[in-house]
Please model this.
Amino acid sequence: LATHPGHLASSLGTVELTLALHYVFNTPDDKLIWDVGHQSYSHKIITGRRDQFSTLRTYGGLSGFPRMDESCYDAFGTGHSSTSISSALGMATASKLQHNTSRQHIAVIGDGSMTGGEAFEALNNAGVSKANMLVVLNDNGISIDKAVGGLSKYLVRITSSRRYNHLKEQIWNKLGGNDIREGKHHRRIGFFQRLTFMAKTAALGAPNLFESLGFRYFGPIDGHDLDQLVEVLLRLQSLPGPKLLHV
Model:
């Protein structure tokens, strides 16, 4: 990368997330879509392109972004921000029309890209679609520069709210969190989600933005804890409808 400059920090920040996503989901049949594509270098390395990596961003070499004709693991050719959620929704809708109920559709989007109008439009449509899709919000407080604006402040409130995280942990333990994690007592899962929604509202002083739009919201969790990422993704894999994991 010193010879062929690229987006190093973005990709180093998603190494564990990349490994967890490919470990849990059946890619390339399950569709993994990277918003912008700045985070996709480790994705390229573990999907058969390690030996070509020295050609990154050179003429005739590997693209600096996901590219569909480069690999079947690149589900969507991108390079611009805020497009991943709408792309995942389109693919999920197509799978539904083909009666393919097992295919998963995952959009990985940074908090900077989440501020784009197309991302909000996609959230608005996906939340009422009942589409089988997962949005992973990679919240690192950075876009091209330090993140600013109302959404950035809102995400900071979620991640820094000790009250909310404490309430969530208490509810989880009282309902038998291990049984829920292992898929037992399905009624408890819905009850847990309703209680955590109330906990979020009480702790943040306002309803959760993403749940208000129709998504099941999970998190925030440590995006560098590989074991926890795998555990949570395995749990979300079996839940139908639109979901958002905040890492």
Observations:
- The radius of gyration is 18 Å.
- The longest helix spans residues 186-204.
- The longest strand covers residues 105-110.
- Strands lie at 31-34, 105-110, 133-138, 216-218, 242-246.
